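=== RUN LOG ===
request id: a7f3
mode: sequence -> structure
chains: 1
length: 166
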Amino acid sequence: MILHKGEVLFRQGDEGAYLYQVKSGLFKVTRLHANGNMVLFNILYPGETVPHHSLISPKETHGTAIALMRSEVERIPAKEWYHELEVNPKKALEVAKLLQEKVRFMQERLDHLTVGAPADRLELLTKWLSSYAYGIPLTDYLTQEEIGQLIGVRRETVNRLLRSQS
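=== RESULT ===
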């Protein structure tokens, strides 16, 4: 299944009839809070099977996944995924490895957030995302507000950092 920039893979609150394996591209995952605040809390990248919180048991989706560029995913019916998990003992190891990879990724992202200077955080984010973005500049697929959310600074700081790189 091919999605183009701006197309939605799944929406916050969807019942989770499918899981998705990201083959190429990137997705941002946002969550709308009750107070109206929209937060970017994750980037999905090739090799991931999502939603992560539904790899073992079904749960409604926690956020909305939006393609940041042309992306390809394999749609996996949830009933088939969970049936395979019940009948194939090797499937549980596959899920454990997927979750382990995500935990390691989150550890790396937390390390990036604890680097002292915002410029260093921006550089680490840019370097990481460039490995999946096929040469597309960061600001072509993320807003300054979203970049700020990913590196823990305000939009104004991102604006200043980007201007200083020019």
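=== NOTES ===
The beta strands are 2-3, 8-10, 18-24, 27-32, 38-44, 49-50, 64-67, 71-77.
The helical segments are 78-87, 89-113, 118-130, 144-151, 155-165.
=== END ===
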